[in-house]
């Protein structure tokens, strides 16, 4: 009878109908070896379908359940998200959706090729909060998530706490100096500018900015990728002070908005995706106005703008701790992994023509990510911990 009740609780967990009391009962059951084994069996069976043969190891299943239990213990009384209709892995896929970035749910567009042998590599940890700050006088400060630091530049206090760098302007500065925040491959960082605007820097990116803005314009220079939430600043006459993001070939003019800019040199163009407000893109004598939900792309080959509807959920996934590989080919996926795991990717015999669809948490170790990618028939060898060889 208790086994039936346990299965009912699992179904409620998946559908989103589980109550706080039901979650408590579920966790009590899972602490017992017989029900832990029953849940492992459910996962193993659910991940074996005709189209997607998820050959998971017992060790992975155990890790999966541990993450589920940890999530349920730390997020009390949070409504459980129901199973997405497009994924049809049954219970296992639904539980993965509940975990979001903390677990893995992955789908391939083509039938899965059998894996010849398990992936055997030295593991690589995911990226973390780390950056290097270069001050106006040339001095360098290493930043991470640990501890607190306070630096004083004249009337400006620079505070680092928990992966966030913040500028506090205590009084009107006589003159502003230029600071540069750089995230390495395998790093990310959050910055609060002197005007209160918030910036999230993705891996392998840099932002150059003044320690104080004037009333005519606020200008920063970006390389790589960043998400911006711009605060409103007004002059003494009540006029809004515009905000500009320069990326070398393109300039983004902002009046107060939320947007993402990707300007990596190894991508085919510079893209700006707007979530709120309005921005204008400029390049030489051309310009383009984009609206919320749109993306403006400056093609590096034609040097022309293109405005198109944007998949904002996919574009913002990096900031939310998720890899979203929807419609990405292998080369695009590898560029993301190269930046986040600080690895160099080499193709042994050209780039296989594979298109992926699905999501994975950015908190996963590299071996877990590669194990899922191998379901497409492509294989990997990790050499010297930082060189990844892609083989057919």
UniProtKB/TrEMBL annotation:
Residues 180-280 form the FecR protein domain. Keywords: Membrane, Transmembrane, Transmembrane helix. It holds the Pfam family FecR. The keyword Coiled coil does not apply. The keyword Membrane applies. The chain crosses the membrane at residues 89-108. Residues 323-389 form the Protein FecR C-terminal domain. InterPro entries: FecR (IPR006860), FecR_C (IPR032508), Ferrdict_sens_TM (IPR012373). This is FecR family protein.
């Amino acid at each position: 009878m208790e086994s039936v009740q346990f299965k009912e609780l699992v179904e409620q967990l998946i559908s989103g109908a589980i109550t706080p009391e039901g979650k408590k009962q579920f966790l009590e059951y899972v602490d017992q070896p017989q029900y832990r084994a029953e849940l492992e069996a459910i996962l193993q069976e659910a991940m074996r379908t005709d189209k997607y043969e998820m050959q998971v190891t017992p060790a992975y299943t155990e890790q999966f359940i541990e993450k589920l239990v940890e999530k349920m213990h730390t997020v009390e009384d949070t409504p459980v998200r129901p199973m997405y209709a497009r994924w049809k892995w049954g219970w296992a896929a639904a539980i993965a959706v509940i975990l979001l970035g903390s677990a893995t749910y992955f789908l391939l567009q083509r039938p899965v090729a059998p894996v010849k042998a398990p992936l055997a590599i030295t593991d690589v940890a995911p990226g973390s909060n780390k950056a290097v700050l270069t001050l106006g006088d040339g001095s360098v400060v290493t930043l991470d998530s640990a501890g607190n630091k306070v630096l004083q530049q004249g009337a400006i206090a620079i505070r680092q706490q928990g992966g966030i760098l913040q500028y506090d302007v205590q009084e009107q500065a006589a003159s502003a100096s230029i600071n540069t925040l750089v995230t390495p491959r395998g790093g990310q960082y959050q910055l609060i500018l002197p005007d209160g605007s918030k910036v999230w820097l993705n891996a392998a990116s840099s932002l150059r900015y003044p320690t104080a803005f004037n009333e005519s314009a606020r200008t920063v220079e970006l390389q790589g990728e960043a998400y911006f939430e711009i605060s409103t600043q007004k002059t003494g006459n009540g006029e809004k002070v515009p905000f500009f993001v320069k990326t070398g070939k393109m300039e983004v003019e902002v009046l107060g908005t939320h947007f993402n800019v990707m300007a990596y040199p190894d991508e085919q163009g510079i893209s700006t995706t707007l979530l709120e407000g309005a921005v204008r893109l400029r390049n030489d004598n051309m310009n383009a106005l984009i609206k919320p939900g749109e993306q403006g792309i400056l093609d590096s080959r034609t040097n022309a703008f293109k405005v198109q509807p944007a998949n904002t959920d996919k574009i913002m996934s990096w900031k939310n701790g998720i890899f979203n590989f929807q419609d990405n080919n292998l080369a695009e996926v590898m560029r993301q992994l190269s930046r986040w795991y600080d690895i160099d990717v080499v193709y042994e015999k050209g780039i296989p023509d594979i298109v992926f669809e699905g999501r994975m948490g950015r908190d996963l170790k590299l071996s877990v990510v590669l194990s899922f990618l191998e379901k497409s028939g492509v294989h990997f060898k990790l050499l010297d911990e930082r060189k990844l060889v892609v083989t057919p």
